[in-house]
Structures are given as structure tokens and as C-alpha cells.
């Protein structure tokens, strides 16, 4: 069996050679886990709470974007398809920013 370790972020068992966790995307180089550590991860309530808060913030931001599209469309009497086309680049930038934040471990 190849050397494995436990991800400190999600508690999943992963290959010791990986730089990022294949389950949650956490940066494994910043973690101080032994390559042969097979003990289960003790629940870190703070990291779980932070993950839930991040997901909640992402959902809130998505809802704000959707509501903004609808309000602009109705207020300016512009077909919603045109407003959506305007917000596609905004959504792409938002997704890329979120991914970069996740990779950096912020």
C-alpha cells in the first residue's frame, strides 16, 4: 500500500505524494501530518464552522447576483437574457477568485 496521510481539513485518507487534497482541495504542504499517520482526524469544530460559513457566504453572494440580474432586468425593461450575458464575466471572475482563495488556503 502506498504511503498515505490524513488531510487535516477534511479527515480523508490521501496519497502522501499529493500536494493538494483530492477531496477538499486543501494545501497539504502546509500541514504537519506524518505520511504513515492512519489515525482518524479529531473533529476541528473551528475549521468545520469556517467551511460552513464560507459556503454560506458563497451562497449569499450567488443569491445577490441572481437578484441583481432580476432587478436590473425589471427596472430597465431589458430582456433578462441581455442582463445575464452582462453578468457572465462577473460570475467567471467571482468563481476564479473563489478558487484562488481556496488554493491559497485563505
Automatic annotation (TrEMBL):
Q: Where is the Zinc-ribbon domain?
A: 7-28
The record's keywords, sorted A to Z, are:
Membrane, Transmembrane, Transmembrane helix
Start and end residues of each stretch annotated as Disordered: 30-52
Where does the secretion signal sit in this chain?
A: none
Q: Which Pfam families match?
A: Zn_Ribbon_1
Polar residues bias locations: 30-39
Which parts of the chain span the membrane according to its record?
59-76, 83-100
Highest taxon in the source lineage:
Bacteria
**The keyword Membrane appears for this protein:** yes
Q: Which InterPro entries match?
A: Zinc_ribbon_dom (IPR026870)
Entry keyword annotation includes Magnesium: no
What is the designated name of this protein?
Answer: Zinc-ribbon domain-containing protein
Amino acid at each position: 500500500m502506498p504511503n498515505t496521510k490524513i488531510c487535516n481539513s477534511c479527515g480523508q485518507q490521501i496519497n502522501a505524494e499529493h500536494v493538494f487534497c483530492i477531496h477538499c482541495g486543501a494545501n497539504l504542504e502546509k500541514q504537519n501530518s506524518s505520511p504513515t499517520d492512519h489515525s482518524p482526524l479529531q473533529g476541528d469544530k473551528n475549521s468545520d464552522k469556517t467551511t460552513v460559513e464560507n459556503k454560506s457566504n458563497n451562497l449569499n453572494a450567488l443569491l445577490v447576483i441572481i437578484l441583481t440580474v432580476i432587478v436590473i432586468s425589471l427596472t430597465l425593461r431589458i430582456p433578462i437574457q441581455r442582463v445575464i450575458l452582462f453578468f457572465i464575466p462577473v460570475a467567471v471572475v467571482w468563481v476564479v477568485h473563489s478558487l484562488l482563495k481556496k488554493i491559497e488556503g485563505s
